[in-house]
Amino acid sequence: MKERNKRWLRAAAVRAIKTFAQTAAAALGVAGTAGHADLAGAMYTALIAGALSILTSLAGLPEVREGEDEK
Predict the structure, then answer these.
(1) Contact call for residues 50 and 17 (beta carbons, < 8 A)
(2) Are 3 and 70 within 8 A, CB to CB?
(3) Which of 57, 66, 44 is nearest to 14 (CA)?
(4) Which one of 22, 24, 37, 41 is most buried, by most CB atoms within 10 A?
(5) Which of the four pLDDT bands, split at 50, 70 and 90, describes residue 68?
(6) Cα–Cα distance for residue pair 14/7, rounded to 1 Å
(7) pLDDT per residue over 2-61, tens digit each?
(8) How many CB atoms lie within 10 A of CB 52?
(9) Of 66, 28, 32, 58, the residue nearest 44 (C-alpha)
(10) What would the DSSP string read from start to end of 17-53?
């Protein structure tokens, strides 16, 4: 696998994991405040957000620019 592809995969995974965690925290926080926390619903929402993050990363990641060496 090319080094650039490895960097892209790593950067996209980090973004997706962060998006998943942030969405899960927000969904649980909002649901908890409303008095009906739904763990399954929050996880489903977070999973969709993580998948959308990967799809968004297909358009390009500023962390992985062509011609740059890994720092």
Answers:
(1) yes
(2) yes
(3) 57
(4) 24
(5) low
(6) 11
(7) 888 899 999 999 999 999 999 999 998 888 777 777 888 889 999 999 999 999 998 888
(8) 13
(9) 28
(10) HHHHHHHHHHHHHHHHHHT---HHHHHHHHHHHHHHH
